[in-house]
Amino acid sequence: MFRFQGRVFLKRTLWFVWEPSWDLFRPIDGFSWNGRAYEIVDTSYIKDPFSELFGFGTLEMKALCIKLTDESLEGIESAPVVKEAVVGSPTWVQDRWVVTTSPQTWREHLRVIGCRRRTCRAGPRGKKFTKRTLR
């Protein structure tokens, strides 16, 4: 269990996040960096906003979340604060390590961070290079 950017995360076989408005842990699919901010991925648990199982998915998952909350309620306030959350295993993507909960390809990573490919293959456009001679 750790605290990162004001949220408490818990890792069992799945990832869980503490929801203070619900006073419960709830399951999440993942937690990753999108290039601008960290985002929680929980699309499989929040499909129907009018369901009483919203945020949990199934009745068994809701029972598991209640059990996890009862077990770790004392440790929530004293959860250690971390500066860098290593959520998944680092994956080498082209030229850097990327930490995500799901494997990514280089193109998916660039799409997520909203960037284009940059390499050293060509020089900047419009810049003229001159050759210097020594006298």
**What's the helical proportion of residues?**
10-25%
In total, the number of strands is: 8
Average pLDDT metric: 79
Report the span from N to C terminus: 67 Å
Give the strand order of the largest sheet, numbering strands 1, 2, ... along the chain.
Answer: 1-2-3-4
Strand content: 25-35%
Largest beta sheet, briefly?
A: 4 strands, antiparallel
Determine the structural class based on helices, strands and strand pairing.
alpha+beta
Give, in order, the helices and strands.
EEEEEEHEEH
Global shape: elongated
Rg over alpha carbons: 22 Å
The number of helices is 2
User: What ranges have pLDDT less than 50 throughout 5 or more consecutive residues?
Assistant: none
Q: Overview of this structure, please?
A:
The mean pLDDT is 79. The protein has 135 residues and is of the alpha+beta class. The protein is built from 2 helices and 8 strands; from the N terminus they run ββββββαββα. The protein has a domain at 2-72. The protein has a 4-stranded antiparallel sheet. A two-stranded antiparallel sheet has the order 5-6. The N and C termini lie far apart (67 Å).
What is the topology?
Layout: E1 2-4, E2 7-11, E3 15-19, E4 24-28, E5 30-33, E6 38-41, H1 59-72, E7 90-93, E8 96-99, H2 106-113
Antiparallel strand pairs: 1-2, 2-3, 3-4, 5-6, 7-8
